[in-house]
Write a structure and sequence with these properties.
The chain contains four helices and eight strands, in the order ββββαβββαβαα. The protein is α+β, with helices and mostly antiparallel strands. Residues 25-177 form the Nudix hydrolase domain.
């Protein structure tokens, strides 16, 4: 695969939409494709009591009152314990912002998902794998994950795992690049 540094970095915050939560009809989220040298991608498995039980998804979450790039850093740290430098993240410009609507408690919401890419180094992989369970157990996030895997293209194409719709779309584009 091309080095993440070869992908254009389009972090122009002037063009990113601002979402204010007093409005609550648009929810801006971020997802990050964390990949190894061998092009395996980090996937997290949702818990039994989540909205999509046992589905696999890319790390990420709501932007809230942060810039999207800062939200990526925060969510990755919360969900995995992986602390990264913002300069190591690049936008996934091959994938447009994914938008969809859904209904919850008789109210319609619109969600946008912006994707980022991060190539993880071996030391961070070892630290993540060694400490992941402790990080998850100590986490205060509501929608915890119960497992992780490094998914390669072959596993993805086998469709043997239930993958969230937006993660599936992002992985399809990502694996086309490698």
């Amino acid at each position: 695969m091309k080095n993440s540094n070869d992908l254009p970095n389009l972090l122009n915050f002037d063009i990113l939409p601002k979402v204010y939560y007093n409005k609550m009809d648009i929810i801006e989220t971020v997802r990050i494709i964390v990949h190894q040298d061998n092009d395996k991608v980090l996937m997290l498995q949702k818990s039994h009591d989540s909205k999509n039980p046992l589905f696999w998804e890319l790390p990420g979450g709501k932007v809230e009152r942060l810039e999207p790039i800062e939200a990526v850093k925060k969510e990755l740290l919360e969900e995995t314990g992986i602390d990264l430098d913002i300069s190591d993240i690049s936008t996934f410009d091959k994938l447009e912002v994914f938008k969809y609507t859904y209904q919850y408690n008789n109210k319609k919401y619109s969600r946008s998902v912006r994707y980022f890419i991060y190539k993880i180094d071996k030391d961070k992989i070892i630290n993540f794998e060694r400490n992941w369970r402790d990080i998850v157990d100590a986490s205060k996030i509501e929608d915890k994950h119960i497992g992780f895997m490094w998914m390669d293209k072959e596993i993805f194409l086998s469709e043997s795992h239930s993958i969230s719709k937006n993660s599936k779309m992002a992985l399809k584009k990502f694996f086309q690049l490698i």
